[in-house]
Amino acid sequence: AAPRPGSFRAGELALAEVRRKHNTTLKLLCRLAAEAVLSSPGGVLPHRDIIGQLPGQVLRASGGARLLLRRPSLEEYVLLMPRGPTIAYPKDISALLMMMDIHPGDTVLETGSGSGAMSLFLSRAVGPKGRVLSYEIRDDHHSLAKKNYRHWRSAWEIGHMDEWPDNVEFILKDISTAAADMKSVTLDAVVLDMLKPQCALPVVHPSLKQGGVCAVYLANITQVIDLLDRIRSCKLPFLCERIIEVTHRSWSVLPA
């Protein structure tokens, strides 16, 4: 029988949630294939038992564990996908997107690509009429980011009516040597996720439109100070508007 509209299909991503001790949840991500099985601490579940089911169903694994099956959100995908470098976490990406005030149709520059987390969120933010230029200096990171992006897009097209936009151009190049590339580009926003973003600023600022936002993702305050010193010493036309740290606190609400 043909699968019902909205039901899981072979080739798309499925997320299984398994309840564990101390009110914790284990999340398992898999790409559905007719002959494959999903392995969990509570037993295995053949993918053929998932294909054709609607998301939100609870299925039992061979060992008796109850697995809640659904499609992963983009946040869950980037947290569970293969990664090389440490990713920009969704809570931080959300704050960056708001600070840059990105709109559908915008052209945004990203350095570096990393594992592709930021690229995916930027892709969704700029939409099918927008464009994301993602520069990466390391070949292994460049390849992984492209792979994770293609993996998400291909699975999305199987499980959804609309197509995920093919709007990210992954470029294997040191951004500090890309001045010639930037001459033909007008950027609505720039996001820098690299060890020394001060090296990229002289290259990208001529292409950033007047009033455009450059957001920088840094790990510690020492890097922030180095960046501000470089902006000041080189007299670059940037105004530091905000320096923030994003915190995320989870709550557990249980019966007394």
UniProtKB/TrEMBL annotation:
GO biological process: tRNA methylation
Pfam families: GCD14 (PF08704), TR61B_FKBP-like (PF21985)
The keyword tRNA processing appears for this protein: yes
Residues covered by the TR61B FKBP-like domain: 10-64
EC number: 2.1.1.220
GO CC annotations on file: mitochondrion; tRNA (m1A) methyltransferase complex
Molecular function GO terms recorded: tRNA (adenine(58)-N1)-methyltransferase activity
Keywords of this entry: Methyltransferase, S-adenosyl-L-methionine, Transferase, tRNA processing
Domain tRNA (adenine(58)-N(1))-methyltransferase catalytic subunit TRM61 C-terminal: 75-253
The reaction(s) this protein catalyses: an adenosine in mRNA + S-adenosyl-L-methionine = an N(1)-methyladenosine in mRNA + S-adenosyl-L-homocysteine + H(+)
SUPFAM superfamilies linked: S-adenosyl-L-methionine-dependent methyltransferases
PANTHER family noted in UniProt: TRNA (ADENINE(58)-N(1))-METHYLTRANSFERASE (PTHR12133), TRNA (ADENINE(58)-N(1))-METHYLTRANSFERASE, MITOCHONDRIAL (PTHR12133:SF1)
Protein name: tRNA (adenine(58)-N(1))-methyltransferase
